[in-house]
Amino acid sequence: MKNTFGLAGLAVMGENLVLNIESRGFSVSVYNRTYAKTEKFMAGRARGKNITGFESVKSFVESLESPRRIMMMLKAGDPVDQFIDQLIPYLEEGDIIIDGGNSNFHDTIRRLEYVEQKGFRFIGSGVSGGEEGALKGPSIMPGGSVAAWPYLEPVFMAAAAKVDDGTPCCAWMGPGGSGHFVKMVHNGIEYGDMQLICEAYHFMKEIMGMDNNEIHSTFARWNKGELSSYLIEITAEIMAFRDQDGFAVVDRVLDAAGQKGTGKWTVDASLDYGIPLSLISESVFARCLSSFKELRTEASKVLSGDVAKFAGDRPALLEDLGKALYCAKIISYTQGFGLLQAASEEYGWQLNYADIARIWRGGCIIRSAFLDRIAEAYTENPKLANVLLAPYFKEQLVGSQMSLRRVVATALMAGIPMPCHSAAINYFDGLRTQRLPANLLQAQRDYFGAHTYERVDKPRGEWFHTNWTGRGGTTTSTSYSK
Ligand code: NBP
Question: Homologous superfamily of 5-176 in CATH?
């Protein structure tokens, strides 16, 4: 009897995913580079289950039904390329390799081509939800060789998280590197959500003078309303968590943030496709700035500011803060979906944005009630140019923008950084400004570099150059040859 599914890489994600898949009625073969870990797993958590461990790649591959479905849950980067090359000698035409790690989508596009050229199929799949998601049901974002999907669908749909109405948090994303791209943007949005929550916490603590219990209660209350989400829920729990001596653990955690790179990749992509992803970019930079702990400590002693203490209506300000956080979150997702749209057009992936919002409703770190609203907006209009133009979001922003303005203004006057909230209101104002000062910018470019400009009194696409100084010639930059 051969097994249905193979999984290589028995670290935290792999182990839990194997147990999840087996629990849905599939037999699983497992392999790990360090065999001792396979033995430990087989003797421990896998004991008595329909799971078989293998020491060699050959026996692991040969234990599987055709077409073979082999999922890698390995450290992203070189290990994935190395393991693909170890698998290939034992594969048969039509076999499927799945990369379930956090690989860069450019690598996925390259690997897909490499594997398909050899007659096999390749899927790059985002898997989100951490350890608990992998075990109980993650959000799964597969993309790549479309012919492989029918063979994977039953396994992935069974293993994925289910939302309240029973919908699995898994859908086919599209060809190429689309699955890993969507997962990357998910992680970028996660960076933005986390930083926004941290800014709200900082505001409550430093500007409003609230203690951990009050902050805990506020997040717990917010979690019952439109801000309801996994990240708000865990934040409320973190605020209430005490060490054995009764001291709040959060106050003992060093304020220097780490990162693994998916936020940076998201920002890289936004620059590649020219999408203003200002909020997520600020969240990455906020982590970078936090990591300069020693420098900040030194600067805090010398760069003093004449900052104002808040002396207004506290309940009203707290109400504003909740609304500001919600508005900023809407703007962050607007930018994130804008990036998905740009990449989909660039690569011809034909991403389904309503599906993406739906599969993020459960299992993953950014899961929230709010994603229903995004799914509704794209279901109503799959070609929606910008999330803020959908009726619900337009109403929210138009109605609550003053809260966001008051919060950002209060923070600025008090000297408390709110880079993501500030980015949100700046994007909103930029988007809704009919005439931006880019006319002057174009004039500057034309002045010093003859870059030419379009005119308001002429049709778009006609380019003009002015001899601003009287010393320039008529040659424009577009006529230069390389
Ligand atoms: P790690 O990212 O720590 O990877 C460890 C696994 O990679 C081990 O099984 C290790 O084998 C194997 N490995 C390495 Br390292 N080099 C290898 C090589 N050259 N050939 C074969 N195997 C090799 O594990 P993880 O945290 O479970 O994450 C797995 C993937 O899932 C990663 O891409 C990660 O980014 C992604 N992910 C993680 C999370 C999370 O919450 N942790 C969430 C979502 C996605 P060994 O035992 O022999 O060293």
Answer: NAD(P)-binding Rossmann-like Domain (3.40.50.720)
CB-CB neighbours of 100 under 10 Å: 29
What is the 93 CA–ligand 1 centroid distance (Å)?
27
Instruction: Please give the helix or strand (H or E) that residue 316 lies within, else none.
Output: helix 314-347
CA of 100 to the centre of ligand 1 (A): 10
Q: Per-residue confidence of the chain (482 residues) as pLDDT tens digits?
A: 999 999 999 999 999 999 999 999 999 999 999 999 999 999 999 999 999 999 999 999 999 999 999 999 999 999 999 999 999 999 999 999 999 999 999 999 999 999 999 999 999 999 999 999 999 999 999 999 999 999 999 999 999 999 988 999 999 999 999 999 999 999 999 999 999 999 999 999 999 999 999 999 999 999 999 999 999 999 999 999 999 999 999 999 999 999 989 999 999 999 999 999 999 999 999 999 999 999 999 999 999 887 777 888 999 999 999 999 999 999 999 999 999 999 999 999 999 999 999 999 999 999 998 999 999 999 999 999 999 999 999 999 999 999 999 999 999 999 999 999 999 999 999 999 999 999 999 999 999 999 999 999 999 999 999 999 998 777 887 654 44
Outline which parts of the chain fall under CATH 1.20.5.320: 437-482
What number does the ligand 1 atom closest to the CA of 12 have?
27
Annotated catalytic, 190? yes
| R_g of the chain computed on alpha carbons | 26
Return the ligand 1 atom nearest residue 100 CA. 31
Q: Are the CB atoms for 276 and 339 separated by under 8 Å?
A: no
Provide the whole-model pTM. 0.96
The CA 76 to ligand 1 mean position distance, Å, reads: 7
CATH number for 183-432 (one of 3.30.70.100, 1.10.10.2840, 1.10.1040.10, 3.40.720.10): it is 1.10.1040.10
In the chain, CATH 3.40.50.720 sits at: 5-176
Q: Which residues does ligand 1 sit against, CB inside 6 Å? A: 9-14, 32-34, 37, 73-76, 79, 82-83, 101-102, 127-128, 130-131
Q: In the CATH scheme, what architecture does the domain 437-482 have?
A: Up-down Bundle (1.20)
- C-beta of residue 264 within 8 angstroms of C-beta of residue 284: yes
CA atoms within 13 A on the CB side of 349: 30
Return phi, psi of residue 28, to 5°: -130, 135
Element (H, E) at 31: strand 28-31
* Residue spans of beta strands (DSSP E) within 2-120: 5-8, 28-31, 51-54, 69-72, 96-99
